[in-house]
Amino acid sequence: MPRAYALHEGPDLNSRIRVVRAFLFICLFGVLARLFYWQIMKADDLRSAAESQYSSIYRTTGSRGSILTADGYALAANQDVYTLFAQPKLIEKTPEEIADQLAPMIAPLEETDSATVSADTTPILPEDLLVQWKKTIIEKLRNSGLSWVSLKRKIPRNVKDRMVALNMKGIGFDQEEMRYYPEASMAAQVLGFVGNDARGQEQGYFGIEGLFDRELRGRAGVVKQEKDAAGLPIAIGGYDAINAQDGRDLVLTIRRDLQFMLEDQLKKGMVRYGSKTAEAVVMDPKTGAILAMAAFPTYDPAKFYQFDPQLYKNPIVNDVYEPGSTMKIFTISAGIDTGAITPEMQCDQCTGPRVISGYTIKTWNNEYTPNTTMLEGLVRSDNTAMIFAAERIGLDTYVKELRKFGFGEKTNIDLQEEALPPFRDTWKELDMATASFGQGIAVTGIQMLRVAQAIANRGVMMRPMIVQAVKQDDRTITVQPKEYRQVMSLETAQTVTGMMEQSALHGDAKWAIPKGYRIAGKTGTAQVAVAGHYDAEKTVASFIGFAPAEDPKFVMLVKLREPSSSPWGSETAAPLWFSIARQLFLRMNIAPSR
Questions:
Q1: Which CATH number characterizes residue 349's domain?
Q2: Which among 79, 115, 338, 391 is least surrounded, fewest beta carbons within 10 Å?
Q3: Cβ-based burial of 578 (10 A; exposed 0-12, middle 13-18, buried ≥19)
């Protein structure tokens, strides 16, 4: 009979059970580890991915702040413009039909200022421009893989309304803002302009727009909203928003009427005297506030890209030049304030040309007056008299006085591009001699104006200012005038004022002085340095002064570069200064002197 075998649990079966059990534990651990990885470690990423599928997030930007004149007129503001876009999946017409209708309205925006395109006039366009725009629109619309495509930015309202009237399905508009300059090119080099930075974001450049970009720029906001599978907002879905903030408004010290008048007078003067450039700045001597500032040639900040970049900088604060005889008001002021000279002191070194360190220095007309007084030396603009005054002051003291009057440092006017003229580290007798009558020393127009301002303001030098208030919502922060320092005594200021009054009264341009007004001023004619020497044919003609002399209401510098009618400041810049002053007397309601 067959043998019977008994079944029992041997060692092999137990081993297999343990292996299966271990495998199950490993699988369970793997599942738990994977869950931990996705639910804990990758939770934020998964949450973000999910939110991107059912919510939309887009940024908003506040409006850029406006720039206003002291009398409340906008010099820089914003206007609504639109981005034309298409939704290819919703379009019913063919790309060719849409291009035929839109291109004739888009193409003119490339040829003209988009803010001023007429609503009822279709300009004649170059055929290639129209064809190119049709081709561009067709190519964008045929890319059916996109749900949204931009066709053209910065479309003005009137053109947008014409497009809306076409009633094309799948064509829409997003509203945005564009910088707008209501007075066109007025005060362009004071304002600056708004362009784009490397990231395509709006950025202010030059002037007020550049220096105060952070204050003017709107603050960004964020809107988060739930959307459906088609990408459209859900009416009852979640909605969260951080509101954007508008930028701050700036109120300038400039008066619109004075700015317009100054620019008009400068343009006429530039033509009358045939100068390459013309500059002028008017300041309130008691506060340092700039009432008007202009330079020609200029540019349109709304179309800055069409102009030479050299025109962007404000030459009154950026261009460096030798001041010529206007520098003599500093030499006289320093001499009297240090006690080195008096108006009646006679010059015993004025019998002929001076020879210093081997160089011969002459007067502008090669005429000499032995024993001339310091007053007569200023009136006649005598170079040898100024050298005499500087020598009486002494080299070390003269350099200290230059520093005290702010030469060699910026005025810190609130414009972006102020230049710092070079200032010698080591001074010699010859350097002092030439600097005493405005040669061999570099200045900016705003530096020279501040010297005259200090004389007009009883010896107190002010920081030039062009922004007088900052506004945001209902708050207004007023910018207070700031004293630089007392650079001369009251007595010195009064004495120099009287000397400058005599200089204007007996100068070659005395015929142009407005009747009934006391004016303190000084002409300047400086040769232009070219390739290491002075060009006898090229000059910078200027006149600096203030009025009324007994109680100054304004101080002004007028500067013409290379006038062709005459090289002399007395025959060009001075008559123009008096012509502008005549208008200032009327507009500022300044009564004649007693």
A1: 3.40.710.10
A2: 79
A3: buried
